[in-house]
Each structure stands twice: as structure tokens, then as C-alpha cells.
Amino acid sequence: MAITGRAGLLAALGAAVVLALPGRTASIVGVNAVIALLVLLDIALAGSVRSLRISRDGASSVRLGEPATVRLSVVNSGSRIVRASIRDAWPPSAGASPRVHHVTLPPGERRRVASTLVPTRRGDRRATRVTVRSVGPLGLGGRQGRHESPWAVRVLPPFTSRRFLPERLERLRQLDGTVLVRGRGQGTEFDSLREYVDGDDVRSIDWRATARRETVVVRTWRPERDRRVVLVLDTGRTSAGRVGDTPRLDHALDAALLLGALASRAGDQVDLIAHDQVLRAAVSAGSRSDVLPTLVNAMAPLEAALVEADHHAMVGAVLRRARRRALVVLFTDLNSAVVEEGLLPALGSLTTRHTVIVAAVTDPAVHAMRLGRGSVSAVYGAAAAERALAERDRLTALLRRRGVEVVDAPPATFPPAVADTYLALKAAGRL
Q: 11 is in which domain, residue-wise?
């Protein structure tokens, strides 16, 4: 049972009537009795909520920040008209609007109402209960009930770094020699034979082909294809820290999507591992057309866990998945607790078998803070920023001495910096 605001207004009018009539006790009883009778009559005449049949259809996935539409289909299988207010209970982060729909359903008819979702967080946004209030013809009271109609919309990473992909694909085509300007790298896959020219490495001379010709012939090489690229996401506590208004983990996801798309176009196998203390996700992309859908679906539900990452277990997961030589790109933070206490003790078994890139997002606010000189507090802030940046430089040098490539860039240039490092390694034949 439900009472509307109109019943409250009627009660207020009844109070004014009581004040105007003699014999207030009897007047109060009489007026309340009339109001109660009208409310009960209205509730009795309201259409049945239980007679409604509710189902859903519409979008099941959407990119973060983009709109999606989910519809409710409501059928009145009862014998009375239903004047209903329908509240579709989505979580606040789903950004659903409108929250309440008003419909009038004659017996046997169907109505469809739509909610527009503009999610503000990644992951699965779920709605289950639909609350329906059926109001009587007087609008004083009605019946209220709930229907279970589960639905989920998976909110995918936005992939804002997609705009950097065409330029990197052009550079990749130059490396592969598929455009007129052939940019040959120092790869390890044989490409073709050509005549020797001054400056060529004598180790590239093909003596058998030279013996069959009148000129010296050298082998040319192209960047490797069909290599393995393993994207490793550290989902420990440091990935929850925000750079700007975005968690570090989301910056890592964006860069990983760009690198995954680029590597798949280069003919490389792409794997994804997300790990903190336990394995959160592990997928292998199939064909080139499956790479992005596979990665975004695996990334969508990932959240930072407020625990220290277990780097020994993380490295073990990588070694079990990549038994042949691969490029391992670890998205983490350049933090002394992460690098010196966690990563370095576990790094040896990884670098001996694989090429490793450690990729981290640096905070532009720290760089801006180092310039502060306007007040005493600004000077102290600048000193703290200098110390933090010097610590990152020290950790970067420490990792590079272990044979690790390091990418440390602000959010605006972080995804292309990771992609450029991959292309440089590919051109140098180091994958």
C-alpha cells in the first residue's frame, strides 16, 4: 500500500475544515474517516501490480562516457487499467535517466519505456529490481510492489589513445617494408637479397649467393613477426592512486589497448595478465579482429585492490604463460616499495628469458610543483617534488642496469611512448 502527496494535501484541507466547524472532536473523526475511506477506495480501485509482466532489452555493453539505452517492456495482464510510476533501480555510477517512468496501461496492452545510461565507472553495472506503484483513479493511494528483471551493462575502457594508432601503423608499415620507402630494421627474419654497398655490415654477406653471381650479395632482414607480447597489469594498491582525475590503472589500460592493437597488426600474439596478490585476469587474443574485443572485455571489470602486489606470483604467472621468448610489458608504478622490495627480487628469472618493459605514469602535478617559489609552503613543495622525481630517476637507472626498458611519461604521452618503445625494439630486432 502507498499513499500519495495528494492524500496529504487532502488531509491539510480537512484540517482547515475542522478549524471552521464547531465540535472539533467529532469533526476530526468525521473528516479523518472520510479521508481514510477515500484512500482505501482508491487503493481498492488501483490496478494490480502483480498482474504486470516486465522484461528488458537493449545495450549490454558501452564504452565509458558514451550513452547506452536499456528498455523496459511492461505488459498489463490484469483486468483493470494500471496508472503506474516505474522506478528502475540502477546504481548511481550507471548514470541512468530518467529514474522514474510514468505509464498508463489498459488491460492487455504493452508499453515500452527507455532509460539512457551514461556510466561514470568501468565494470558491470547491474539492475535487478523494478519498483512499480499503481495509483487509483483519485490519485490518493495505490499499490506498490517489486519485480525482478535482472540486466547488466558492461562498461568498457574508453580507449582514448586510439587516435595515436594510425601514425604508429604507418611507422609499422615502414618497418615491414610494405610502403615505397622501405625502412629496414635489424630484425632476425630474412627478407631478401641485394647487392653490397659501402657501409653494409660484412656479416650480412651471403657467400653462397655471392658465389653464384658476379657481385657481392648481402642479406636484408625485416622486423620479427609472430612474436609474443604479454601485457601485465599490476592491480595492487599503487594502481588505485590518481593521476589527475583518473586512476593509474585506467591510464595503464589505455596504453595497453594501444599497444595490443599495434602488436596485433604487426602479426604478434597478444596476451593479457592482471595480477596483484592473486591472478585477476588472463586471456590470449586470437585473430587480429579478436584482439581489441578480447582485451576490453577482460579489462572492463578490473579494479585496483588495496593490497601489496605479489611480484613473485606475478612473474610466475608470466613464465607459465610465455614459455618462449616474449616481450613482457609490466604496467606498474615507479615506487621504491614496488620496485626495490617487490619487483627487483623477482625480476631476474624474467629478464633472463624475456625482453622486459616497465611502464609507469608520472604525475604532471609533481613537475608543476617543482617550479613553485612563491611562498614558503611552495618552496617546501618544490623540494618534495624534486626529491620524488630524483627517486624515480634512481629507480629508472636501477631497472635499466638490469636490462629493463623503462617508460616513464605523463598521461598525455604515456600510451604513444609505450607504443614507440615497442616499435624501437622491433626495429632493433630485440623482441
A: 1-156
Beta strands in 160-267, from DSSP E residues, in sequence order: 189-195, 217-222, 228-234, 242-243, 246-247
Classify 56 as helix, strand or coil. Answer: strand
Q: Is residue 312 part of a domain?
A: yes
Residue found under cell 488501483? 46
Report how far apart, in Å, the C-alpha atoms of 299 and of each of 63, 254, 306 are: 12, 10, 18
Q: pLDDT-derived band of residue 18, with 50, 70 and 90 as boundaries?
A: low
Report pLDDT digits (tens) over 341-384: 889 998 888 999 999 999 999 999 998 888 888 888 888 888 99
Q: Are residues 268 and 415 in the same domain?
A: yes
CATH code of 382's domain: 3.40.50.410
Q: Which residues have a Cβ under 8 Å from the Cβ of 413 and sit 6 or more positions away?
A: none
Question: Is residue 190 included in any domain, yes or no?
Answer: no
> How is residue 352 annotated by DSSP?
T
Q: Residues of the chain with pLDDT > 90: what percent?
A: 45
Q: What is the CATH number of the domain that holds 126?
A: 2.60.40.10
* Separation in Å, CA 277 to CA 214, 274, 302: 64, 10, 14
With a CB cutoff of 8 Å and minimum separation 6, the contacts of 216 are 195, 196, 205, 210
Q: Rounded distance, CA 395 to CA 406, Å? A: 10
Beta strands in 41-99 (DSSP E): 52-58, 61-63, 68-76, 82-88, 96-97
Judge whether 220 lies within some domain: no
Decide which of 169 and 28 is more confident.
Answer: 169
Q: Tell me 50's DSSP state.
A: T
Q: Who's near 139: CB < 8 A, 6+ residues apart?
A: 4, 6, 42
Number of domains in the chain: 2
**Cell numbers describing residue 13:** 484541507
Residue 329 lies in a domain: yes
C-alpha cell at 43: 487503493
Residue at a domain's end among 101, 122, 156: 156
Taking the C-alpha atoms of residue 431 and residue 420, their distance in angstroms, rounded to an integer, is: 14
Is the Cβ–Cβ distance between 406 and 357 less than 8 Å? yes
C-alpha 301, offset from chain centre: 7
Domain boundary among 122, 140, 156: 156
The residue count of the chain comes to 431
Instruction: Based on the fold, state whether residues 365 and 241 are members of the same structural domain.
Output: yes
Q: Is the pLDDT of residue 79 over 80?
A: yes
pTM: 0.79
